[in-house]
Specification:
The protein is built from 4 helices and 8 strands; from the N terminus they run βααβββββββαα. It has 149 residues and is an alpha+beta fold. The chain has a single domain (8-142), classed as Pleckstrin-homology domain (PH domain)/Phosphotyrosine-binding domain (PTB) (PH-domain like), CATH 2.30.29.
Length: 149
């Protein structure tokens, strides 16, 4: 039995259950053809400026620079956070995702947030964030609009 209320998982070591949990919550990865049509589904790594208090344990204690990148999925996003030799993945379904663009960008969901610094690496991801917003809007439209036959 899977514990689906866990939205942040330690992905440092391969665990076959993680793939199933992610697929159940936000769908499997896009196919190669879809990735090519979308011109990629992953962001470049971005500098984390700030996180919510309940995510502080995933941040580096020694170094003041923390990095993360985002991967798009059909029904949500994966935020991959690097902490030294450890990797954590935050699973966010689109219906829970809120994005704020203030001096960089921040993702909010499940009582947590992560704010990305407005740096060169963040600005290189402008097209990626546009793609993310488009997918979220399309998902919200499908869910809110009843399908007609």
């Amino acid at each position: 039995m899977y514990l689906y209320f866990i939205k942040i998982i330690n992905t440092t070591h391969h665990n076959p259950e993680h793939r199933q949990i992610i697929a159940d919550l936000i769908g499997g990865p896009f196919s190669l053809v879809q990735k090519l049509k979308m011109k990629g589904v992953g962001s470049k790594r971005m500098i984390i400026d700030e996180v919510s208090p309940n995510m502080q344990s995933m941040m580096n204690k020694v170094s003041d620079l923390n990095y993360a990148n985002i991967e798009l999925r059909p029904k949500g996003v994966l935020v991959m956070i690097n902490q030294g030799l450890k990797n954590f993945t935050w699973i966010i379904p689109y219906y829970q995702l809120v994005i704020y663009k203030i001096n960089g960008s921040s993702l909010h969901a499940q009582g947590r947030f992560i704010h990305f610094r407005n740096s060169k690496t963040f600005r290189e991801n402008k097209k990626f964030f546009d793609k993310l917003l488009d997918l979220k809007v399309k998902y919200d439209m499908q869910v809110s609009m009843p399908q007609t036959l």
